[in-house]
Amino acid sequence: MPDHHVTDTNRALYSISQVNALTGVSTPTIRKWEATFREYLKVTRTKGGQRRFHPEAVERIEFLKRLIYEEGLSLQGARKRLEQIGESNGGNAGDNPSIEKLADMVTDLLLQKLFHQGIANPEESFNRRVGGSSSEGNDAS
């Protein structure tokens, strides 16, 4: 395994306690995810061995949090999802997926969830709830 030591002091790096404060993910969980998703998070270490997280790693922890806590995926399920993202990027899960790509993935997941809850057409359901309809026109009576 390559030795990732902090060498560029001009980049913003976060300690594990700062990542905990930013994401709400506990430090033991962050350590577990670092070990489980090593190639995805790519955490660096100081010469003293302390973890340092680049902003991209913090964003990825937020994404893992959504997959695991909000979508209910297991660690194995989250790993599989990351592999799918990597394949759609033409690389692997360690590649840096764009924010747009991640947003598209989250949107797709939410639409799938709505579909599985029986809402085949979210726009139609929304319009029914607010009292309008996309078919109700701009008729001036």
Write the layout of secondary structure elements.
Blueprint: H1 16-23, H2 27-36, H3 38-41, E1 44-45, E2 51-52, H4 55-70, H5 75-88, H6 99-116, H7 122-130
Antiparallel strand pairs: 1-2
CA-based shape:
elongated
Question: What is the subunit organization of this protein?
Answer: single chain
Q: What count of domains describes the coordinates?
A: 2
Look at the structure and give the CATH class of the largest domain. Mainly Alpha
Helix content: 55-70%
Report on the biggest sheet: 2 strands, antiparallel
Low-confidence stretches: 1-10
Order of secondary-structure elements: HHHEEHHHH
Number of helices: 7
Specify the CATH architecture of the largest domain.
Answer: Orthogonal Bundle
Distance between the first and last residues' Cα: 73 Å
- Fraction of residues in β-strands: under 5%
Please sum up the structure shown:
With 141 residues, the protein is an all-alpha fold.
Verbal overview:
The chain has 141 residues and is mainly alpha-helical. The chain has a two-stranded antiparallel ribbon. It starts with 15 loop residues before the first helix and ends in an 11-residue tail after the last helix. It is elongated and about 60 Å long. A hairpin with a 5-residue loop joins strand 1 (44-45) and strand 2 (51-52). It is built from seven helices and two strands. Helix content is 56%, strand content 3%.
